[in-house]
Design brief:
The structure is a homodimer of 428-residue chains. Chain A has 428 residues and is of the alpha/beta class. Chain A has 15 helices and 16 strands. In chain A, the strands form two sheets. In chain A, strands 7, 8, 9, 10, 11, 12, 13, 14, 15 and 16 form a ten-stranded mixed beta sheet that branches. Chain A has a six-stranded parallel beta sheet with strand order 3-2-1-4-5-6, sandwiched between helices. Strand 12 of chain A pairs antiparallel with strand 12 of chain B. Chains A, B: Belongs to the homoserine dehydrogenase family.
Amino acid sequence: MTNPLRLGIAGLGTVGAGVVKIVQTHADLLAARGGRPIRIVAVSARSRGRERGVALDAYAWEDDPVALARRDDFDVLLELMGGEDGPAKAAVEAAIETGKHVVTANKAMLAHHGQAMAEAAEARGVALRYEAAVAGGIPIVKALGEGLAANGIRRVMGVMNGTCNYILTEMQARGADYAEVLEEAQRLGYAEADPSFDVGGVDAAHKLALLAALGFGTRVDFAGVQTEGIDRVTLTDIAHAEDMGYRIKLLGVASMSEAGLEQRMTPCLVPVDSALGRLAGVTNAVMVEGDFVGATHYEGPGAGEGPTASAVMADVLDIARGLIGPAFGAPAASLTAAPRAADAGAAAYYLRMSLHDAPGTLAKVAAALGEEGVSIRQMRQYDHEGGAAPAIFMTHPTSRAALDGALGRLGGMKECLDQPMALRVETV
Amino acid sequence: MTNPLRLGIAGLGTVGAGVVKIVQTHADLLAARGGRPIRIVAVSARSRGRERGVALDAYAWEDDPVALARRDDFDVLLELMGGEDGPAKAAVEAAIETGKHVVTANKAMLAHHGQAMAEAAEARGVALRYEAAVAGGIPIVKALGEGLAANGIRRVMGVMNGTCNYILTEMQARGADYAEVLEEAQRLGYAEADPSFDVGGVDAAHKLALLAALGFGTRVDFAGVQTEGIDRVTLTDIAHAEDMGYRIKLLGVASMSEAGLEQRMTPCLVPVDSALGRLAGVTNAVMVEGDFVGATHYEGPGAGEGPTASAVMADVLDIARGLIGPAFGAPAASLTAAPRAADAGAAAYYLRMSLHDAPGTLAKVAAALGEEGVSIRQMRQYDHEGGAAPAIFMTHPTSRAALDGALGRLGGMKECLDQPMALRVETV
């Protein structure tokens, strides 16, 4: 039997505890599949005493994750603390510096420091892997970076935040409003006490930025992701979308064209009867289009102890088997800084606005849209409530520039009582 | 730049031509992602002159695939000829013997000789990889063998034959009968001139046997797959299933329990609104359940030039990166010969039979079912046609043993005019 692969674990929250459980439950299986025994040597967490449902006595303890990362008695650091900077970043840097492989579930850290960390890991000849950072238990990093690696990737698209999808699904299914469902999601542990990373789209945008880098061979460009949360989506929007044959999803889309790399994480309308439209609850789904393979679709649990720990350990097994390739599928130095392209393609949009209930208002709005080059496919106006009449427009495909022109102009009209909201209708 | 990885291709049909196209189209991409240039050195096929839409002048030609496999100027043999024995097997054996890695799309060969070939490859220290053998462009071998490798796999299930799914989809959608749609599938190139491997379930059973070995760490046991084709499925069955909320799919299910390994590739009823029920046309889908990850779902093109070549080249890139692990995820010597378990769990069944149209017939049939322990949930009898009355039963969950007892007894009754057909209702 070859030497065991020795692990140090920084962070013993949900994911860390799950990893310990897998290692303890599946020792034989992991040894057979990894070609060598997998052993935990040392661990680190904020609180030593906390009950985690796993025995930790056999492992060395470190209070400081950086001290853990610098130990000389293990081979792979599992960074499962989270946080884009601070101890997580310091521990990963220390691990790479001391010649250890790194497996992390930390999308925020990689979205900000992925390029630098990939360069450092390559220079040191160690692996930097992050299957668990994107779409939980779905092996999408592996599918995109290895399984579809012979393709020119055209588009990566998906629902990558279970909290948002849970909220939107429940709003649609029960007619419950945003605040009510968010509170419930927090009670069930789906949403953090500070939900802004989730509902604001930032968490999902982190993930999209990683998949884009991997798929397109570009440098991680999180700042280039056009990000919009779900907090402005109302029950009205959900009901109108449903009525027109659509569901609203927080949808990530990354695509490469001559104009450059387009990255969006925004609420979009997708057909009710599409795979993404049907996606309910906390499940994640990712669709990848390649020039030879065509469209492939991946679905599964996007978070949780078991799924995330499964992804972490898949990376560990790859390292055990000797897979020490570059983090983003190609040498870090070869990753290009692609120009940013905003909404390169034309799309239909759903518009919602509140209009002053007076003769001629609708004509003025319609004229403004037309003059900006935005053509209307469907329009609905409803009974007014206290002088304000809600109006819904579905446009024909239009460029984002024309739409922005129209939105700007409408926003400045006295007939328009609020800033109009626009949601893209995505082709899936 | 490190040494190029040199390929020899045996077989230049649809898949082989697709592989040549990828190598010629994506030279830079493959070099970046594989960490070294990928070069075709020599090729072999039955007809040298045939137009394949790709330039082959730069490659050495061999008439004999075994002579190709024995050349000493390349590193990886791509076996893309097909056929469970004969030249394909001989070429693979010659390649392994002469120290070459093997990538194959040949499910029939591996279903029969996978264990011996895996042992030979391991003994010689070369890779034997077969992503293209199962579910075309979907990287399911990678997902199951690597992405979910930290899990105890509980069940692998899927629709893995595009031809059958196309036929069943078209029968359902257009009310066209089996023979008509089969002829159309042959015209479109979806089905072979001899369709028996497809519609008989054998092709899909080959694939299931490979996934089962990979998922459960067992020796490939193709003979242990309970296989039934779709040729007995009628429009009547499809219409009744639809009416009761089900679609009929040629569904593969492999699961491991205390009783042993259960492998089935049979037409089953699945809920209309499930992911598998909605699967239309030639698309494939596979669902994998693991003890930590839960259920994950994979969908994409199951055949065709681009998708299959994409899968072949993913294996080539893995070899370029140095991934030379055992073929079935664990050392071949460690793969166990699991006992065969037939239909270990209880299930509901759809029964169709033709009854003699006479007083008391139905009572006798119902009594026979009851006495064998099969309880009826729904029953429909229709206007008789020339003395024969078609009858449809949906049972409550029952063991396969009880069902077989009932079927045997019904088959022997003079009131039963044909051998009753039973389709399992699968829980998805």
